[in-house]
Write a structure and sequence with these properties.
about 350 residues, mainly alpha, globular
Length: about 350
């Protein structure tokens, strides 16, 4: 559901003929026990007194990052998803393992292996700047939430208020990642079940999938759809023939370049909009999980509704991001910490 972003080095390897081929004539993702823990005193004005310039400080970093490395946008939004779905929105994805200890943290997990460095760098830079003005006050978890919102807006999506007050988590274990993240070939039933375990609805699933309006995936996440879908020895019949041909040129069955990436949204890949949903109706979904949302009768009407009304999508997306941002929130020194360096626990 949320496979890979891409690094700046692989940016030049994108197959730009996708954009020409499908360019329209006009543009119209913790533990289940944490899922029920709601906002836990989160507030838009949480730092109004202790760090009133917080959002402007983070914005200065995200704007520069987006200009210098546009991949920072989708990469940081993805990082936010991966943080919230494992242990809750507590910055545990940002922890780096200590050399020589043999202890693997979330960042080391196989499912997180291709999280783009630009996302971590965006948060690191923002944290350094914030610490210089408001030392020991703002959590890394809150900075990640704010940065993700900023990048949504910078890419053309909605600007929405972010509730703050999260503390950073004290636990980060690679072993807790696999069962808490969607797969690129998850069924709709599996997705609904996973989202429900986080306190999110089927509607939230469809709306948050709209984050694939921007971002890219490596071939490994969809190559089975091109050559041997479901063990049939045939391509997935739910792929438009033009897209299938283009994808095969970029992603051979064997021996392809592992750095090649392809946009989730083949029509407006660099703009956060609702074209993603129209693509699903036109059989232009990249991942099996994306296309499945249109094929399943439970989620199809939601896909169609989001595809028809961009403003409705923006409103629903903002609400779903706030809801997801409340998963497994940590509060107080018993359950959390306020890291000075986002990659290191305080003790």
């Amino acid at each position: 559901m949320l496979p890979s972003s891409f690094s700046s080095s692989s940016f030049l390897l994108i197959s730009f003929f996708f954009f020409l081929l499908f360019l329209p004539t006009s543009y119209s993702l913790t533990k289940p026990t944490n899922a029920t823990r709601r906002h836990r005193q989160l507030s838009i004005n949480y730092y109004a007194t202790s760090c009133p310039q917080l959002e402007q400080l983070v914005a200065s970093v995200t704007a520069q990052q987006f200009k210098e490395a546009p991949v920072s946008g989708p990469a940081t939004i993805r990082l936010f998803f991966h943080d919230c779905f494992v242990e809750g929105c507590d910055g545990s994805i940002l922890i780096s393992s200590k050399p020589g200890t043999g202890v693997l943290v979330e960042k080391d997990a196989y499912d997180n292996r291709d999280l783009a460095a630009e996302a971590f760098e965006s948060v690191r830079k923002a944290k350094v700047l914030v610490e210089s003005k408001c030392p020991g006050v703002v959590s890394c978890a809150d900075i990640l939430v704010i940065a993700a919102r900023d990048f949504v807006h910078l890419a053309g999506g909605p600007y929405y208020q972010v509730k703050k007050g999260r503390w950073d988590g004290k636990i980060s274990k690679a072993s807790r990642v696999n069962s808490n993240l969607p797969r690129a070939n998850s069924t709709v039933d599996e997705l609904i079940k996973l989202f429900k375990s986080k306190g999110l609805t089927m509607e939230d699933l469809v709306v948050l999938s709209g984050a694939h309006s921007i971002g890219f995936a490596h071939c490994e996440h969809f190559v089975n759809r091109l050559y041997d879908y479901g063990g049939t020895k045939q391509p997935d019949s739910a792929i438009d023939p033009r897209l299938l041909k283009a994808l095969k040129m970029s992603c051979p069955r064997f021996g392809g370049n592992t750095d090649i990436v392809t946009p989730f949204d083949v029509t407006t890949p660099f703009t956060f909009d609702n074209a993603y949903y129209g693509n699903l109706e036109a059989k232009l979904g990249l991942l099996a999980t994306d296309q499945a949302l249109f094929l399943d009768p439970r989620t199809k009407p939601l896909v169609q509704a989001m595809g028809k009304d961009r403003q409705k999508f923006f409103q629903e997306f903002a609400a779903a991001m706030e809801k997801m941002g409340s998963i497994g929130v940590k509060r107080g020194r018993r359950h959390g910490e306020k890291r000075k360096d986002c990659s290191m626990h305080m003790s």
